[in-house]
Protein 1
Amino acid sequence: MKVLAFGASNSSKSINQKFATSVSKYYKEDEVEILHIHDFEMPIYSADRERENGVPQLAYDFASRLDAADLIIISFAEHNGNYSAGYKNLIDWVSRIKGRKPYQDAHLFLLSTSFGARGGQSVMEIALARMPRDGGTVIEHLSLPEFPANFEDDKGVTNALFRSQLEAKVRKTKREMQKILDSKQTL
């Protein structure tokens, strides 16, 4: 299985990048690629820019990475209760590629975390509502509250309850993805 993981933040110190990377380690038997969305920064989307210059190559490059993955792990940063501007701009550009939705038939494991007690639940609610319209199928999701209290760089999720929930969700995504991949082989 090919797994793609990234934090939906362009911060060089993103806790969501750390969280997505940490969760991707549960898929060590699979082919895992870690992306940083700051590598795909483009001008702020506008119809004028699109009309004058077309869709930037970086949007096509990002879309091809999405298309190559069997499972995509995204950890959403919450900026004022919504997507980060860097992520939103990237998806705005990808959505302008003719004939595609951003997450065209993708299978997703959505995460969020923050320093607060809700763990990015507001952005998670937005993502859960939006993903089907963007072409993605959400297999599982998890919000991790109070990141510094529940996560360590070398250990990942340290709180026993949250770690147990995460590991159950990882097992579910593996089972569901195996069914999906098996069904594709029988076609």
Protein 2
Amino acid sequence: MKYLVGLPRLFVGGLFIFSGFIKLNDPVGFSYKLTDYFAEDVLNLEFLVPYALGIALFIVTLEIILGVMILLGYYTKPVLAMLLGLIVFFTFLTFYSAYYNKVTDCGCFGDFWKLTPWQSFWKDIILLFFTLLLILGYKHIPPLFPKKINLGITLVSLIACILFGRHVLNHLPVYDFRPYKINANIMEGMSVPPDAPRPVFQYKWIFNVNGEEKEIVTQDANYPEVEGGTYVSVTSEILDEGYEPPIHDFSIESLDDGDVTEMMMAEEKLIMVVVYNLDKAEEVGFSKVKTFTDKAIDAGYKVIGLSSSDPQDLQDLSNLMKFNFDFYLTDETALKTIIRSNPGVLQLNKGTIVNKAHHNDFDKIKL
């Protein structure tokens, strides 16, 4: 039996540590995913939204510590009970997402590895199976080291999680797996290769033919000809989503000039100030934005602001802080993906991201 639990012990412990670390690297991103689950049309737990970041930090730290403890064989029974509770909870969430198509990415491995809802569910089923094997054979999970050493390793792991989490919250994720990482070109990320698979749709046309409804199924959006038939309705369903570029929701909109994305991405020296939502911004960062952007303008950079907030509110902020640049409108979700700082800054050269910084690190961008 001890050999039967050896592999599941490594698999469960290792996967929990890996999954937890990936999310701890970007707890803000994981909190966005929890917010999606808390939404009214999903779990209807909107009262938890203000606490999403705290809950995210607790969950990912718990994942890592439980993974460490099961590998150490430290307090095996209570650890297995908590592991079972977590995996049952995650299995419920992924099944709910898959069955009702409410949240299309569970965020199990952050932006490192995207899984479809059903892939996430079956991953959790496998993890649940291995966890149950561990529970059945818990007597054959010996401690890896003496009790004091196991305690010391657990405490060191906990302190490391706290320090690492504090670091990424006050700066940016150490590892950036998003399409807006440094050295990525935004316009290239938005492009679709000529030979890329195209979306495939199925259309169901309903016609009234001699008083009876007749259904015609096509993969062509063109209006079908039905002799003696009167059109009633049409519905469409996507059979294959085809190729979706890494960046598909980014644009820069001007109230006066419309879409100016290509024009801005052609700039050789561009600074983008991201304030995805004024109501949720850290006000201490605005004075730093003022100091940094004034220096950037003096250094010959074009500076623009990107936000999803009300234009009048943005103008009021600019007047208050005496900003010497204009704000443009961009989708909030895209801005939250671009940088995990509100406000934050990106430095670009013809659409290529040269550098990006949390408002605590503007001084690290060389102009």
Protein 3
Amino acid sequence: MQKLAALESGKYYHIYTRGNNKETLFRHSDNYHLFLQLYRKYTAPYADTFAYCLLPNHVHFLIRIKSEDHLKPQCLTEDSTKHISVERQLAHLLNAYTKTINNRFERIGKLFQHRFGRKEVTSESYFTRLIYYIHFNPQHHNLIDDFNDWPYSSYHSILSKSKTALQREEVLEWFGDRDWYTKFHKENAADFASITPLIEEDEI
């Protein structure tokens, strides 16, 4: 297996993974909610989340690794000299979800093809276009006619004013405001080809 670059504190990443042999990860709606619940438990304490999308056989997240100054005490190792690795927490997430699904559907073996892949986000243009890419994914894969109608992404949570664990205000600042956020998504729906180079499609 190709060695993955370590996730570094303070940096932004697009992380993604898929089902083993493109197997379905989410068989029922409550499976999506379970995955997000486990994400909040295992990953959210170590990373800020800007966008996500869960699809039947793969997932996307845009995150920023928290610096040690922003970690809670429980995120440190026993000697408190270093923080628990995000890679380990991501592995816990996948393992916990796999164990639950295996028990529920009486299956055995691994559910995910590999650990989370990752690609560093290095510019403002990359950041905004990647958020759009993540949200548009269900329409791109012909799962739905309009990505607006997909219930398992962060698109509407960013527009909402209700409580959220997402970095909503930062996302809107990158776009300018809610109106520009919405406009950017609508306008780029006609030019999706210019977005796809942002992700290595062969890894999804």
Protein 4
Amino acid sequence: MQHNDCFQLGHVTRTHGTKGEVVIFLDVDFPDDYEQMESVFVEIKGQLIPYFIQQINIQRGNKAIVKFEDIHSIEQATPLINCPLFLPEDTLDELDGSKFYYHEIVGFRIIDATLGALGLVTTVYTMATQDLIAMEYQGQEVLIPVNDDIIKGVNRQEKVMNVSLPEGLVDVYTEGTNAVADDDDSEIED
């Protein structure tokens, strides 16, 4: 299994107890959807290694306590701390319309209803209060809130995200860079 065939499910945060269990963080909207998960790929030294799940117990806060097969002690579990967890993309439900998985839109062109083509999605930041799409625009990172009023839809075939940005959003990021450049040109008087 290769990285580009997978999506990152989460990561191992710590060990749990002395019998080899670990706590994992599930970076998903609905952790309960994964309570029947039978295996996962663990990234170790850049390689995706399959681990079979003996038991999984979903907790609050997108966490789960997991017992992997063949991991029977805290010493065996400790090297897994901070390792990313992956699942094959084909395990995801297919989405349509304005719904999308964050990992799938990286590299999509962003086209605004008024401004036209703007730039490419570079990453998506998941925050406690608001998820943000990062777009590369004229050498600047512009953050776009993930919001149904802003994100109008995606075209997976053309790798395009259609948006209707709030007036002035792009200016907030580009005007600040011009102001800094203008300040550098001014003379300093004693």
